[in-house]
Amino acid sequence: MPVTNRTVRASDGELRLDRWFHRYFPLLTQGALQKMLRSGQIRVDGKRVDANTRILPGQVVRVPPMPEGQAPMAEPKPVDPREASALERLVIYRDDSIIAIDKPQGMAVQGGPGIAKHLDGMLDALRFGSEDRPRLVHRLDRDTTGVMVLARTPAAASRLASAFRGRDMQKTYWAIVVGRPHPLEGRISMPLAKHVGGHGERIVPSDAKDATHAVTLYRTIDTAQKKAAWLELTPLTGRTHQLRVHCASALTCPILGDGKYGGAAAHPDGFGDRTLHLHARALRLPHPEGGFLELAAPLPPHMKDTFTFLGFDKPRTPACKRVR
Q: 141 an active-site residue?
């Protein structure tokens, strides 16, 4: 992505520069922002600035190329009416600050090489009469299904992005893994780092200085002998591909369908569906206007079929609700 220059809107006058970035680029971390400020990549009206600089309407902010996965929204294209209707049907919760959808398998959240269609490019379909375009505040992998939260206002985006960076978020994932974990429940604590090799970019366990610590709680809900297990996964950190790496490397039980990290072991004989079996089942988060929001998404079709095949019960999905 090239360098861009963005003019400060009247509604953003007197904002601190770091808050302006978090409002419009909510996936950008504070550490990455500080690094770009120190190196002079970010400037206001051509001058070096600090994170606490107050910006004024009409000023021009130089926005450098963003780190991977933290790029700002591209200019949206008109959404096909049929795709807009399909996207609206994914909504499981909506109020003045938040929209939550049940993201299907195969939907990319953001654009990238070879990705022409993605959620970020279709968010105008979810305005529901609002002047503000919904904003992404977190991500799910293309083949991960389940609860996905969008902010409806700049203020909500800032608060939600902060919540996702902090420890106020309770995330629950369900996964079908190949094999039976031992022990059946526990805590995985493993530093991870990015590795680029002959098979592309992957996240790997690492003792390198630049590795970031990743912690996951897991619990086995049910097993199909030693063939497969249904796990509840609770990430306490938010590293890229954390759950997939932890299952494959720490538990030696790769997530069913995860050939990237499990190789051939993730595609055992007898299982017809080779799709990733990882589902963002539930999310409990602070609501920007107070209280908490409890969200849940039903199993996607491919996981329902696998539950039936393995003889697992399919629990009822609780209603999404705000708790004051």
A: yes
